[in-house]
Amino acid sequence: MVISHLQETAKSLVAQLGLNRHPEGGYYVETDRQKEVVGTPFVEDDPPRSLATAIYYLLGRESPNGYFHMNKSVTYHVHHQGRAEYVLITPVPGGAPTVERRVIGADVENGETRLLIVGTGVWKMSRLLEADVLDEAAGDKTGCLITEVVVPGFHWEDHAFLTREGLKELMGDVEATELARYVKDT
User: Which residues belong to any copy of the DUF985 domain (predicted)?
Assistant: First the structure.
């Protein structure tokens, strides 16, 4: 697997793109919110939502991971620079959840993907790969920059953070212990 870094420093990207700290971890800025609205089938009473929204999202050495969260809408993750691993947990009613690990990056020949689609009802978390973080020569160019497009558009009412209790219920004691550091303390 090829180690991939940012073309500029994370600090430079934060300044150039006007990024702010994201409550999920990392940095972001909303780049588009469509004026057209649609109802969302994922919330009772079908409230109106923007047709779609888009953000830049950046992980860097200073903020190397996000926290487990779920969006009720579909989210398209489009790679720009660097790479990151996504851990996706899909609950299975009455059974063990499906856990998938995907790397978003440019090294498609070695299994990385430039487009990651996360459907509704999936818990997700992103983090920089350990090999990239340990590569001290990369310095502040360690990171991952993506665009996220959410359809129907993002709204905080359609978002939830995974709790420690929820993680334990979902995964059981052993796996929950491994992933607990990616649960945001609320």
Answer: 12-161
